[in-house]
Target: DUF4255 domain-containing protein
Amino acid sequence: MIHEVDEGLRRLLAESGLETAGVEVVFDAPTRDWAARRSAPTVCVFLYDIHEDAGRRGSGAGEVYDADGHVVARRTPPRWFELTYLVTAWASRPQDEHRLLSQVLACLAATDALPARLLTGTLAELGLTVALDIAGAGSDAPAAADVWSALGGEMKASLGVRVRAPLAGAATAAAPPVTEGLVVRAAARREDAAAEPGRRLRYRETTDPGPEGFAGPRERGAAPARRRRRGDRQP
Model:
């Protein structure tokens, strides 16, 4: 799922005109060594935080159908995860970097979800909304300053982008559909096989079998005497 989100972001930024302008879109960590090797104008989309949205976790299982409408599998509900990216622009001059970053900001702020036409793999199969927004102060992801400190690079202007994407549940194949009716086959009885005597039901109180070998009805005895209760008058 993560690589499919990456591909969706890459396609979205490419549609904004970065690709035609010769700007690379990469997903590398912007470390000091990486920055020293960079030569072309680049937009870096670095994934640095992943955590589950536990409040959206479901239960049970859903059915997966084929083109003919037959159930082919059962799948557990998807689990939702938040992916947070640090987006930076790299060019020879700060003005060019700001121009690139502004172009990226305009592209990302214009939509609240990755368009369905840009989704691939399991994201396209699930058909669920992949939410996209500019991560604000309410995000649980680490602060940008902490990220730059961990990378060992110099802090620069960046955008925090958060994507909420579903991870497809585990699928279990279902039995194939029934295509034939019930078939009953009879086999000839062997002549030499001894007939097994039937089991006779019999009550203990009587030895007189009823018709056709079944025990007759049990005779009821006298009704038990009613138990005397305290307060009853003697006759």
Summary: Residues 2-18 form the longest helix (17 residues). The longest strand covers residues 79-90. The chain has one domain: 2-172. Residues 70 and 179 are 12 Å apart (CA to CA).
